[in-house]
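Form P-L/3: holo structure prediction, ligand thymidine-5'-diphosphate.
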Amino acid sequence: MSNKRGKFIVLEGLDGSGKTTQINKLERHLKNKGLEVIVTKEPQADRPIGQLLRRVLTQDEKTDLRVAASLFAADRLDHLTRRDGIIDALEKGAYVLCDRYYFSNYAYNMVDVDLDWIMSLNREAVKIGKPDLHIYVDVPADIALSRVTNRGETELFENLERLQRVHDNYDVLIDLLAASEQIFRVDGTRDSHIVFAKIRDFIDSEIIGN
Ligand code: TYD
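OUTPUT (holo model):
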């Protein structure tokens, strides 16, 4: 990659953690600094693998959960390598803000599928597209679920027992990967402007300041 490489920042958290609100605020903050910013998410809504995953999540399509786990990894590799994908954007010097990445694959899918196997499916993404920062918006499962239920849409993984396990999994993964990944955990139960102030201060000093 060229010296111009941008920065790759991922937002992680339970469904209903407020990641989307934080991404939007971060986009505005970075654009106000004159930076080029690309906002994106996984699974991808405009690509065949992501569209298939959407059908799996809404349960219009039934698959073994190993198949779903591997499709998420395939969608990620497509997201990185497609024309105007994450790698192209970084090479042009953009800040890429991505809603979910391989921590979601680990935390959600290790409930049903062997974690080592999921990690092996993501090895290439770690190699060619390791984020400069994972921001984990930490919200307990009951609060996250009540926010999602208020939206009136519940998907495959959106039930309390599962989200509690996913929440525990994020804790395990953050410990496990602390040495090899840059992770910033923020308490997502506070007001969104307080949550954002913490994210903004961290990014201004640790990512832009670099
Ligand atoms: P989605 O409806 O796109 O929105 P949100 O991110 O706001 O919750 O949810 C995607 C769902 O897919 C979510 O329940 C997490 C799950 N998921 C995985 O299980 N594995 C993955 O690799 C990714 C990216 C998401």
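COMMENT: Residues 15, 20, 42-43, 57, 72, 99-100, 104-105, 108-109, 155, 157 surround thymidine-5'-diphosphate (CB under 6 Å).
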